[in-house]
């Protein structure tokens, strides 16, 4: 796969999730239904692309200890988010209406550790790892100094108001375009079978 694809697809799929989420809320509640499921699938696809971006950024940063730790932290956050969004989709499938979803979520989140690992703390590692590795690339002068600023805005803005997720994704797309170019220029050739 061309390394540029993940750097463009990840923010675009995140933006798609954010827009679908807004449309899903027009009736005053989100889920269950087609918009709930479609939005969650778009974000899970985005998370798969983010794994590839972390691996590429680690390579671009020189595969050193800091980039390895940052990428690992980010991928742990991704795994947590995939678990969260998968649970959300299952709850959507099992629920006849929004009120029933609340009952299912209460039961799931009452399981010791689930709230911490899947919903509140561990998912934040995705943002921490992403900012750390992009900041490292900026310190190495592989990207411009404004790049981690935009990544940080993408981390903060949707957490202030989830309806701002498309705006955060736009910041991320702008910051990822130079990374996509860098990934293409520094791509390692694929091994040729003898």
Distance between the termini: 21 Å
In the predicted model, the low-confidence regions spanning at least 5 consecutive residues are: 189-194
- The rough form would be described as globular
Largest sheet descriptor: none
For the record, the count of structural domains works out to 1
Q: Could you say which structural class the secondary elements and strand pairing correspond to? A: mainly alpha
Number of H/I helices = 8
* Percent in strands: under 5%
**Mind telling me the C-alpha Rg?**
18 Å
Report mean pLDDT, rounded to a whole number.
93
Number of strands: 0
Order of helices and strands: HHHHHHHH
Helix content estimate: over 70%
Structure, described:
The protein is mainly α and 194 residues long. The protein has one domain (3-184). The chain is 77% helix and 0% strand. It has helices at residues 3-24, 34-60, 65-94, 98-109, 114-120, 124-139, 146-160, 165-185. It is globular. The two termini are 21 Å apart.
Blueprint (SSEs and pairs):
Blueprint: H1 3-24, H2 34-60, H3 65-94, H4 98-109, H5 114-120, H6 124-139, H7 146-160, H8 165-185
Helix pairs in contact: 1-2, 1-8, 2-3, 2-6, 3-4, 3-6, 6-7, 7-8
